[in-house]
Write a structure and sequence with these properties.
By secondary structure, this protein is an alpha/beta fold. It has eight helices and seven strands. The protein has a seven-stranded parallel beta sheet with strand order 3-2-1-4-5-6-7, with helices on both faces.
Length: 257
């Protein structure tokens, strides 16, 4: 285990599984205590919290559905009450809904945009206010997607949310820099996570996708977590307003089948 983040507290949203869980564990290995946001405080959430605690770090579970500003306020209030401070925010929680553009319903659009863009917007705002009030620097990292750049037919709402997350990052990076707060995105490509379960169980679709990735494989959640750990550390103090793409080369090689 390292100590690049010793003495830091990181809030990781959507951390009960997949990329979020991998991030929480990697930041804990780097020395950070973890505020583990989950949608529900269930067995999966407690197992993830136990895995963090097994690394010798403090872990507090914060449960909330992020679809609403009131929930965002609840999350920040819980973090503030359980830790003396928080230094790192990882906006990882997200969802997608498949539908061709002409069939997208308002309810599906709202569900995707509320969690993928509105929640990061206002959670980041609340988090930045606590840093500024305390006179502390901080790190904000959004887990975006190659689809902040790359069209993804039948997932237009998802792409719109990730494109919005890119411009949110760029704007607030400029506004928050005078306060010593950096803001960056990590943009994963095709990663082996539960959200891709159907793809992983379809050999032909998987073969077609891997054939478009120059490194000829899907990525692992731990590889996204490694990029996040770098951006969260002092090694990345002079990086802000950037998207770090972690996709095996997919973005510049992808062609819709």
């Amino acid at each position: 285990m390292g100590d690049r983040l010793r003495g830091r507290v990181a809030l990781v949203t959507g951390a009960s599984q997949g990329i979020g869980r991998a991030i929480a564990l990697r930041l804990a290995r780097e020395g950070a205590d973890i505020a583990l946001h989950v949608r529900r405080d269930d067995d999966r959430a407690r197992e993830s919290a136990g895995a963090v605690a097994a690394l010798g770090r403090r872990c507090e579970v914060v449960a909330a559905d992020l679809a609403g500003v009131a929930a965002v306020s609840h999350v920040m209030a819980q973090v503030s009450s359980r830790f003396t401070h928080a230094d790192i925010l990882i906006n990882n929680a997200g969802l997608e809904r498949r539908a061709d553009f002409l069939s997208v319903r308002e309810a599906d659009y709202d569900a995707v945009l509320d969690v993928n863009l509105k929640a990061p917007f206002f959670l980041t705002q609340a988090f930045a206010k606590t840093l500024i009030a305390a006179g502390r620097p901080g790190k904000i990292i959004h887990i975006s997607s190659v689809h902040e750049e790359l069209p993804f037919p039948n997932f237009t709402a998802y792409c719109a949310s990730k494109g919005g997350l890119k411009m949110l990052m760029r704007n607030i990076a400029v506004e928050l820099a005078p306060h010593g707060i950096t803001v960056n995105n990590v943009a994963p490509g095709a990663i082996r996570t539960p959200i891709n379960a159907a793809l992983l169980d379809d050999p032909e679709r998987l073969r077609q996708l891997v054939g478009q990735i120059p490194l000829a494989r899907m990525g692992d959640p731990e590889e996204i977590a490694a990029a996040v750990a770098f951006l969260a550390s002092s090694d990345a103090d002079y990086i802000t307003g950037s998207s770090l793409v972690v996709d095996g080369g997919l973005l510049w090689n992808y062609q819709e089948q």
